[in-house]
Amino acid sequence: MDRIDRRILQALEADGRISNTQLAERVGLSASACLRRVQALEKSGVILGYRAVLDRRALGGAITVFVAVGLSDHSRKSAAAFEKAIATAPQVRECHNVTGAFEYLLRIEAGDLAAYKDFHANVLGTLPGVNSITSHICLASPRDERA
What is the model's pTM? Predict the structure, then answer.
């Protein structure tokens, strides 16, 4: 990967809908050379896909909660069971296996505090192997580069 590939990635990360012609102009390539590079980046797995950035508040996701989840046992079986169970919960927007004092960090989106409480009590709190749940309600996200 060279400087031009990095500029292509930077431009696509900022605007995944940019036309190939505009992208080529921005990085100083011909349209055909730029398209070949983008296709190579896609084929090699550097570019995993493209997506729309949605306004979660407009879709009913009024609050974001970061949740630290500790498991009672640290086996692969326990981790796999947790990951499988959490994968079906629509409130869970992200699930990260992390190091430190707990095993998982979740990003939850809920319509309001009552909806989060329901998820906490009736979904997360009922999963076998969950030993601890620590919730952090997000007040604001002054920098958020998720797409």
Answer: 0.78
